[in-house]
Amino acid sequence: MPNAAQNPAQPPQWDIYVIEYARAKDQPIASLVNGTHHEGVMDTPFSFVLARSGQRNVLVDTGFMREGIGEEMSVRFGVPYWISPVRMLEEMGVPADSVTDIVLSHAHFDHMGSIHKFPKARLYIQKSELLSWHEAMALPPQFGFLTDIINPDDLRAAFDASVEHRLTLLDGDKDNLLPGLHVRLGSGHTIGQQFVILESARGRIVVSGDCIYSSRNLTGHNHNGVYVPLANGIGSIWEQLKTMDRINDEIGGDLSKLIILHDAARWEHLPEVKNIEGFKISRAS
Predict the structure, then answer these.
(1) Whole-angstrom distance, CA of residue 83 vs CA of residue 258
(2) Protein fold of 15-283
(3) Dihedral, 126, 201, 272, 100 alpha carbons, nearest 10
(4) What is the mean pLDDT of the chain?
(5) Pairing assessment for the beta strands 279-283 and 272-276 based on DSSP bridges
(6) pLDDT digits (tens, 9 = 90+) for 151-168
(7) SS3 for 193?
(8) Does the structure show a pLDDT above 90 at 3?
(9) Is pLDDT of 238 > 50?
(10) How confident is the model at residue 7 (pLDDT cuts 50, 70, 90)?
(11) Rounded to an integer, what is the distance from CA 230 to the centroid of its chain?
């Protein structure tokens, strides 16, 4: 549980949990990691992060709901295994209206597709991320590849939050966005993706968003240290690799300090605290 007796002179230490909520079936590995065309398919896990400190319940991303366009997208992208992110949080004693803050890595449907379920939460997203999607949505239909993973209802929900003065647009890196929680611009997969650093009892933990799909992005295919690009993105490969380098610097090459939200190994290095209908909640701090 959160440490209620923290020294005010020290940054808060967050209790951090990785919450799995969905799995795609038979997704080609080559659709995620460059240079893996010979490696077949896998059931790709989907997750988000709960971080707790004092009275704050913070989410890094939210997962998506299987309703409306979200249901159609889950079918289109082959995600048959799903449990409500709201239910998974309730299993941790966190009802939706007690979520105080949501830090969004980027705007793809599987990362921000539940924001409308958290009516009291303040949202944080990079300005370049949100505005780039409005620009992309306004392009002619032949540019549809760019917005294939965007649910327009999520953009509408973000606009509603802005009308309610619950949306903060960030402009690059920011230390202590919340005490002990830092964000870094991580362009590449999308125009304005960000990754999150959380202070914890285990040191600084990085939540990669989709800056990283696999440890091989950092270690190289042959563990030669040559960064491997993502196979899925609308930004620059150059920017992807620079972002990977920033993450690698932050973790000092220690992969145990990195939370990969689509981790093929399903966070096997982390202790499992709950298992709900086959979906794992793992402790990362």
Answers:
(1) 24
(2) Metallo-beta-lactamase; Chain A (3.60.15)
(3) -40
(4) 96
(5) antiparallel
(6) 999 999 999 999 999 999
(7) coil
(8) no
(9) yes
(10) low
(11) 15
pLDDT digits (tens, 9 = 90+) for 15-31: 999 999 999 999 999 99
Query: Token pair for residue 11?
Result: 């940054």
Coil, strand or helix at 65: coil
Q: Identify which of 97, 89, 81 has the alpha carbon closest to the alpha carbon of residue 60.
A: 89
Distance CA 253, CA 259 (A): 13
Per-residue DSSP letters for 61-97? -----SSTHHHHHHHHTT--EE--HHHHHHHTT--GG
pTM of the model: 0.95
- Do residues 219 and 276 lie in contact, with contact meaning Cβ atoms separated by under 8 Å? no
Ramachandran angles phi, psi of 154, nearest 5°: -70, -40
Which amino acid makes up residue 73?
M
Domain range list for the chain: 15-283
The pLDDT, as a whole number, for residue 11 is 73
CA dist list (Å): 259 to 22, 91, 97, 180: 16, 21, 25, 17
Q: What are phi and psi of 98, to 5 degrees?
A: -100, 0
Angstrom distances, CA of residue 140 to CA of 136, 234, 236, 258: 9, 16, 21, 38
Task: Using the CB atoms, write b or e for 167-180: b if 16+ within 10 Å.
Answer: bbbbeeebeebbeb
* pLDDT(4) > 80: no
**Cross-strand partners of 33:** 230
Helix (H, G, I), strand (E, B) or coil at 216: helix
- Beta-bridge partners for 283: 17
Angle at 120 (CA atoms; ends 119, 122), nearest 5 degrees = 105
**Residue the block writes with tokens 């989410």:** 59
Residue 12: the pLDDT is 82
Percent of the chain scored above 90 by pLDDT? Answer: 96
- Report DSSP letters for 240-284, one per residue: HHHHHHHHHHHHTT-GGGEE-TT-TT-STTS-EEEEETTEEEEE-
